[in-house]
Amino acid sequence: MPPKQQKAAPEQHSSCAGVAQFVAYALGKFYFDFAYILGKFISGFAYVLGKFHFDFAYVLGSKLVDGR
């Protein structure tokens, strides 16, 4: 006589797995969006800061050259 096959997992386990999968997806999407926004912010911030330093150095240099 062949061994009995295992019964399929109860319905609640599959729904738990679905919930866990959804939570993982939502969390991953949140972190991905957060990382994207943070990267965009830091990139923009670095650009503005670099522009500020460049403009500041230009103004300072022109003042030193002109002697005003």
Helix-strand layout with pairing:
Blueprint: H1 11-66
List keywords for this structure.
68 residues; 82% helix; mainly alpha; single chain; 1 helix
- Assign a percent range to the helix content: over 70%
Question: Looking at the structure, what is the overall shape?
Answer: rod-shaped
Query: Please, what is the average pLDDT?
Result: 75
Beta-strand proportion: under 5%
Number of helices: 1
- Count the beta strands: 0
Largest sheet: none
Give the radius of gyration. Answer: 29 Å
Give an overview in words.
This protein has 68 residues and is mainly alpha-helical. Helix content is 82%, strand content 0%. The chain has one helix and no strands. The longest helix is centred in the middle third of the chain and has 56 residues, at 11-66. The N and C termini lie far apart (103 Å). The model has no long low-confidence stretch (mean pLDDT 75).
Quick structural overview:
The protein has 68 residues and is mainly alpha-helical. The chain contains one helix and no strands.
